[in-house]
């Protein structure tokens, strides 16, 4: 593990627990206690508010703020592109959340990094919002474990009424798909939200503990692919 990565992990461990001994930190990071001592001193020199007491352990001073986050230029490009993709391809709630996240990131960047973020030349053009119809409702239904009902039009133009357990959403570049358990077919199915009509979130909930969950959907898809030789 690179030194910078280890220091980052060390800060996360200090954030996690109210107080942690050097021995515990060394075990989690797979290094010697002496290395932890050196890393703690490096964090202190860089301004991270670490407090330590002999025989007790270390903690982050809860009354102080950590110094601003730093990113490499490729990391900023990745963040910027990801946020732009969510703004272009997510539902309105996700788009607003992405914009708010960008503002928070900008607020902790130094001027040169903020300029680098603004000058990123990777884009995700708007104009495909129709492909996200119903996406917000489906996200909430998945989170609340509530069944949904909709009229579905397949690629042949045939319509059927479905009640499904929504399990996960996948983005494929220009369209989304819903991974679900279809009660009409009593089987795993994928549905495109832009082909759904009259979408309703039902009061009826479901329990993924019965084995009908996203992991089961993925296993079934992998088995089907292996059977077909794909």
Q: How would you describe the overall organization of this protein?
A:
- This protein is of the alpha+beta class.
- The chain folds into 3 domains: 58 residues, Orthogonal Bundle (Arc Repressor Mutant, subunit A), CATH 1.10.10; 55 residues; 97 residues.
- It contains 8 helices and 7 strands, in the order αααββααααβββββα.
- α1 packs across α3, α2 packs across α3 and α4 packs antiparallel against α5.
- The longest helix has 17 residues.
- It is elongated, with a radius of gyration of 24 Å.
- The protein starts with a helix and ends with a helix.
- The model has no long low-confidence stretch (mean pLDDT 87).
Layout of SSEs?
Layout: H1 3-16, H2 22-29, H3 33-45, E1 50-53, E2 57-60, H4 73-89, H5 92-107, H6 111-118, H7 135-144, E3 146-153, E4 159-171, E5 176-182, E6 187-191, E7 196-205, H8 214-227
Antiparallel strand pairs: 1-2, 3-4, 3-7, 4-5, 5-6
Task: Please provide a brief summary of the model.
This protein has 3 domains: 3-60, Arc Repressor Mutant, subunit A; 73-127; 131-227.
Characteristics:
single chain; 230 residues; alpha+beta; Arc Repressor Mutant, subunit A; five-stranded antiparallel sheet; 8 helices; 7 strands; elongated
Secondary structure tally: strands: 7
Helix share of residues? 40-55%
Q: What do the pLDDT scores average to?
A: 87
The secondary-structure class comes to alpha+beta
With helices defined by DSSP (H or I, 4 residues minimum), what is the helix count? 8
Distance between the amino and carboxyl termini: 36 Å
Q: Secondary-structure element sequence?
A: HHHEEHHHHEEEEEH
Q: Rg from C-alpha positions?
A: 24 Å
User: What general form does the structure show?
Assistant: elongated
Low-confidence runs: none
Main sheet attributes: strand count, strand direction, barrel closure: 5 strands, antiparallel
Number of individual domains: 3
Oligomer: single chain
Question: Strands of the largest sheet, in order across it?
Answer: 6-5-4-3-7
Strand content: 15-25%
């Amino acid at each position: 593990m690179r030194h910078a990565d280890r220091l980052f992990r060390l800060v996360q461990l200090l954030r996690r627990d109210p107080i942690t001994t050097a021995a515990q930190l060394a075990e989690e990071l797979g290094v010697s206690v002496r290395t932890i001592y050196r890393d703690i001193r490096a964090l202190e020199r860089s301004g991270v508010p670490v407090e330590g007491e002999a025989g007790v352990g270390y903690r982050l001073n809860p009354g102080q703020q950590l110094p601003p986050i730093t990113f490499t230029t490729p990391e900023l490009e990745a963040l910027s592109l990801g946020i732009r993709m969510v703004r272009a391809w997510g539902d309105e709630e996700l788009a607003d959340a992405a914009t708010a996240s960008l503002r928070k990131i900008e607020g902790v960047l130094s001027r040169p990094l903020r300029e680098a973020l603004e000058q990123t030349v990777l884009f995700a053009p708007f104009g495909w919002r129709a492909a996200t119809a119903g996406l917000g409702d489906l996200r909430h239904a998945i989170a609340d474990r509530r069944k949904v009902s909709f009229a579905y039009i397949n690629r042949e133009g045939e319509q059927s009424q479905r009640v499904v357990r929504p399990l996960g959403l996948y983005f494929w570049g220009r369209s989304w798909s819903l991974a679900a358990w279809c009660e009409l077919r009593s089987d795993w199915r994928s549905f495109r939200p832009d082909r759904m009509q009259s979408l309703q979130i039902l009061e009826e909930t479901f329990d993924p503990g019965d084995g009908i969950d996203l992991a089961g959907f993925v296993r079934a898809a992998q088995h089907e692919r292996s059977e077909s030789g794909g």
